[in-house]
Design brief:
Elements (H helix, E strand, L loop, with lengths): L1 H10 L3 E6 L10 H13 L4 E6 L3 H6 L1 H9 L4 E5 L11 E4 L3 E5 L7 E4 L3 H16 L2 E2 L9
Parallel strand pairs: 1-2, 2-3
Antiparallel strand pairs: 1-4, 3-7, 4-5, 5-6
Length: about 150
C-alpha cells in the first residue's frame, strides 16, 4: 500500500487530497515520503496539498517530519480536522489531481482500490473527499501566530 501511495505522489502535478484517521499508518512521516511531498510542492507554485484527519494527536507527538513539511510549505498546504458530521468516515483516501486515487474501504481492512488516469472512476471519491473537507475545522497550522 505504501508503494501505491508513493506512486501516486510521483504522478501529482496540481493537487493532492488526503483523508486519513491520523496518518499514523502508511509511512506519512517517513523521510522519503516527506521529501516527495516537499518536491511536489516546490515543483509548481500553484501546487496544493489538502489533508484532513480525524485526530491530530499522533502528528503532534510523532509526526515531526510531516509537520516540518507543513511549516515549510504553509502557503500551499492545509491540514484540517474532521467535523462531527464526518467522524464516522473510516475509509482513507489519497486523490491526486482528481484523476488518480487510492481508496481503502475501511481503516481496519488491508484491501484498497488503486486507479490511475481515470477521472470518471475518481469522481465519486473526489465528491466524498469534498464532503468530508466541508466539515473540516482548523487542525495544525504551519505558521506561528502571535507574539
Amino acid at each position: 500500500m505504501t508503494h501505491a501511495q508513493d506512486e501516486l505522489i510521483a504522478l501529482a502535478r496540481h493537487h493532492i487530497k488526503l483523508f486519513d484517521i491520523d496518518l499514523s499508518w502508511g509511512g506519512w512521516n517517513g523521510a522519503a515520503r516527506c521529501e516527495a511531498l516537499s518536491q511536489f510542492l516546490r515543483r509548481d507554485r500553484a501546487a496544493r496539498l489538502s489533508v484532513i484527519v480525524h485526530d491530530t494527536h499522533w502528528l503532534e507527538a510523532s509526526g515531526a517530519r510531516f509537520c516540518a513539511v507543513l511549516r515549510r510549505h504553509a502557503d500551499a498546504m492545509t491540514l484540517y480536522r474532521t467535523g462531527t458530521e464526518a467522524r464516522a468516515a473510516m475509509d482513507p483516501l489519497l486523490i491526486v489531481d482528481d484523476l488518480h486515487f487510492l481508496h481503502r474501504q475501511h481503516i481496519d481492512w488491508p484491501r484498497a482500490t488503486l486507479s490511475i488516469g481515470n477521472a470518471e472512476r475518481a469522481r465519486p471519491l473526489v465528491q466524498r473527499f469534498d464532503e468530508i473537507w466541508e466539515t473540516g475545522e482548523p487542525g495544525l497550522s504551519g505558521s506561528v501566530l502571535g507574539l
